[in-house]
Amino acid sequence: MCAAVHTVTASNARILSSLKSPPNVVVVGGTSGIGRAMAISIAKHCPAANVTIIGRNEAAAKEIVPQLGANGEFIRADVSLMTEIRTAAQKINAVDILVLSQGILTMAGRTPTAENLDNKLALHYYGRVLFVQELLPLLRSSPNGGKVLFVLHSNRGNLSKINWNDMALENSYSVSSAAIHATSFTDLVIQHFASQPENVNITFTHAYPGFVKTPLVDNLPFAARVGAKLLMAVGIGISPEDCAEYMVHGMLGTEKGYRYVDNKGETITNKTPAEPEMIEKVWEHTSQMISAR
Ligand SMILES: NC(=O)c1ccc[n+]([C@@H]2O[C@H](COP(=O)([O-])OP(=O)(O)OC[C@H]3O[C@@H](n4cnc5c(N)ncnc54)[C@H](OP(=O)(O)O)[C@@H]3O)[C@@H](O)[C@H]2O)c1
Asked: Does the keyword field hold Oxidoreductase (predicted)?
C-alpha cells in the first residue's frame, strides 16, 4: 500500500532537515506546476537550502523566489536551446539535487527550434541530458551524494516502439512517437549514467507525476483544454503541492544507481529490461545530437 501524502511529507521534512550540509538544489522548469511546487517544498523542509529555479517566466520567478528562503535564485533561460543550457549551467557553482521538470503539452507536429531540434524533444529529452552532462562534475562532488530527478513519464516508455532508423524523428514525427522516444530514451539514458563508475555516488530517478492540476494543459487545442479543465473541476488529478511531495519522496528514496518511480514515488517493477546495445545506441545518438549544437 502506498503512503499517504502527510506521511511522505513528514518523511521528506525529516530527511531534508537533517542533511549535514544544506543542499544546493536546481529545479529546471521551476517557474510553474510541479517544478515550482518541488522548489517551494524543498525550501520549506530545509530553509538553509540554496534553491535555484530555471525557466523563462520572470514574473512567475518574482513571485516564487521569495518563497525559497534566504538563498533563492532564478536563472532565466530558454531550455529548448542547447546553447542557453550551457550558459545557464555555467552560472551554477554547486548542485546536490537536480530536478528536470521543463516541458510542454502540445498536439503540434515537429516544431524545429533555432538549433533544428524538435521543441518538445529538446525540452523533454535532449536538453535534460545536456543539463545532467554539464552538471555532472558538481553532482559527483556532492557531499550528500548527488540526486537527479527526471519528471516525465516513467511508465510510458516502450523499447519495442523506438524507431532506431530515425532516432531524432526528423522524418517520422508524430505526437505519440515523440512521447515514446522521450520516455524510452530517458529510461535508457539513466541506465547509461548510472553505469559510469565516476557516477557511483549519484542516483538517477525517472518519475511519472500522474495527472496533476497545473497550467500544462493551457496550450492544448480548445476542446482538449476544456476536457482537461472539466476533469480537474470534478476532482480528477492531484495538486502540484501533493505531487511535489511524492516526487521528492521518490527522488530521496533512490539509494543507488537508477530507479523508475510512479506517481506516489514508489518503485515501478514491471519494466522491460534493456539490451546493453540499446543503451549504447541511445547514448551515442544523444551525445552526438547535443554536442553538435
Ligand atoms: N501535469 C501533469 O499532469 C503531467 C503529467 C505527466 C507528465 N508531466 C510532465 O511533467 C513536467 C512538468 O509539467 P507541469 O505540469 O509542471 O507543467 P507546467 O506547469 O506547464 O510547467 C512547465 C515548466 O516548463 C518550463 N518550460 C517550458 N518550456 C520552456 C522553455 N522553452 N524554456 C524554459 N523553460 C520552459 C516552464 O517555464 P517558463 O514558462 O518559465 O518557461 C515551466 O516552469 C512536464 O515535462 C510534463 O510533460 C506532467
From this structure: yes
